[in-house]
Specification:
mainly alpha
């Protein structure tokens, strides 16, 4: 599998997590767990830059409790609107990866 195919697969899994049960923070956290092995620096073009910025945003706070992790800590401190925006950005990156694949 190509690296681009790997990224599409991981973002498809992340999007699947966004449409499940649970509150938005839990769904976005699960989506990011799906993306934990995606190295933003290995993504090309604008999608790479967009994911690097999103990854930095969602891991910007240190964990407050042992084992909490930076993603959960950061999402906990975001407004619901901000967390929803993160979900939208994941979907946008996923859709761009699909468009790039279709064009190639």
């Amino acid at each position: 599998m190509s690296i681009e195919g790997y990224h599409r697969e991981k973002f498809a899994s992340a999007v699947s997590n966004l449409v499940g049960l649970g509150d938005i923070r839990t769904r976005v956290e699960h989506a990011f767990v799906s993306l934990v092995t995606v190295d933003p620096t290995k993504m090309i073009g604008e999608t790479g830059k967009k994911y690097q910025a999103l990854h930095a945003k969602v891991t910007s706070r240190p964990e407050e409790a042992e084992g909490e992790g930076t993603i959960r800590s950061t999402l906990h401190h975001m407004t619901e609107e901000d967390v929803s925006g993160v979900a939208e950005e994941i979907l946008e990156i996923h859709n761009q990866l699909l468009r790039d694949f279709s064009a190639g």
